[in-house]
Amino acid sequence: MRTDRFLILALMAACIFPGVPARAQSSGKPNVLFVCVDDLKPVLGCYGAKIVKSPNIDRLAERSVRFESAYANQAVCAPSRNSMMTGRRPTTLGIYDLGTFFRKAAPDAITLAQYFKQHGWRTEAMGKILHVGHGNQEDAASWSVPHWTPRGSQQYALETNRPAATPPGADATATPPKGAAVECADVPDSTYSDGKIADEAIRRLQAVKGSPGEPFFMAVGFHKPHLPFVAPKKYWDLYARSAFQPHPIQSPPEGAPEFAPTTWGELRQYTDIPKLGPLTAEQQKELIHGYHAAVSYMDAQLGRVLDELKRLGLEKNTIIVLWGDHGWHLGDHGMWCKHTNYEEAARIPLLVCAPGLAKPGGVAKALVETVDIYPTLCELAGLDKPAGLDGMSFAPVLKDPAKGKTKEAVFHVYPRSPRGMGEILGRAVRTERYRLVEWKKPGAAPETAILELYDYQQDPLETRNLATAQPEAVARLRAILARQPEGKPQLSTGTDTPKKKKGNRKKST
User: Fold this and answer.
1) Residues 147-186: pLDDT tens digits?
2) To 10 degrees, the CA torsion angle through 469, 472, 477, 481?
3) Is 134 assigned a catalytic role?
4) Is the N end or the C end of the chain the one with fewer CB atoms within 10 Å?
5) Where are the beta strands (DSSP E) in 79-206?
6) Is 412 a residue of the active site?
7) Helix (H) or strand (E) holding 474
8) Is 185 helix (H, G, I), strand (E, B) or coil?
9) 50-87 per-position pLDDT tens digit
10) pTM
């Protein structure tokens, strides 16, 4: 059956795309370029943010289907990336932290890349794909060749911004010392890691062109705009500081549980950020400026990779996915970083370019979540999806973005440890109109839950928890949530899990 589908794809490629390289036509399998971007929220030109300079993402969007309602399964790096690679939600794995390797929970899981590898693709990865650090690691079984990480790049170009050295004998799972939260230095793009990652991706594409007969699955993981917001000066110069203003909403939603917002401990670890209290207006504008500069820097590196893909004649038979692992609070609700169930943390950018199979330039409002990417790529590549995935394919939406719809709701989660309550999970269900968050211990009685409800038709900025005001909506959404597995407690892995801090502050990613 798979062979027949591969043959059909090969004939389609030969008829529709006569310029496709012989190596791709001979296998009948499309290439896959999977671009992962750290902390990238959908504040981009193609998403209507006119101030942002993201020309390369925007031109990719012209060839892709752009998803307006795409969501992460947890707004923090490791669990989100686990969901992308395994097709399983954090509640299925029981992993909500940074330090637990996903194979502790699912030793026999077949990752997205591993599945393509088993079916004849050469799988390669560079940069940040899975989360590495805090005791966590890459997954050797996923890649045909060892995962590549940039060497010799510096997080900071300027000595004054660098952190103090890690003390000898320090805990390897502890968060390393931080330097400044921002840096504007007049240096080449390759000074920082994303420039080197783009260089390596270009080298790998050139090697692929000279090696016929084997399709590729290439994962390219850019680090920016993750903190610190460092970028060469020319990207800062794209923006005037005066163009940025603090977010108009500077307080958490009225009636929200006090533990639901983030205390943005990740940002407070940087040396130029106060340990307590709010930021000044000038500090906020500097951070917003830095985030935008980092986005434009990453966008330029992506552009170099896309240009090379086209120059080599590979783009016509290459599926391209651009995925942000989660969003980021840029001062809304008085919050920074991710680590919440709110819209600015949970909503992500997602572009899918599938030549000949998707409508270019389409805009889809269908709800999708990270776990849906795995089965979708399987369908686009002509593969039967493996058992045990939590997501469902949105390939029908690619064919008809205006009418396509795959599900009534998507799901995400965030854990908290409020004082006196122990560990609880905030399981969230997001529909087209609402988000309900149910906070309770896994297995506890439903009546013990603390609830949040947000109505994005009436209150798009989440200014008020409406759980008591709209009981009928709460009942409908809890019924949807009840059809999902309740969620496992955090998997305990001993020394593989970093020590937890008191309260609800989260370590950086």
Assistant:
1) 999 987 679 999 999 988 777 776 766 677 899 999 999 9
2) 110
3) no
4) N
5) 122-127, 182-185
6) no
7) helix 471-482
8) strand
9) 999 999 999 999 999 999 999 999 999 999 999 999 99
10) 0.91
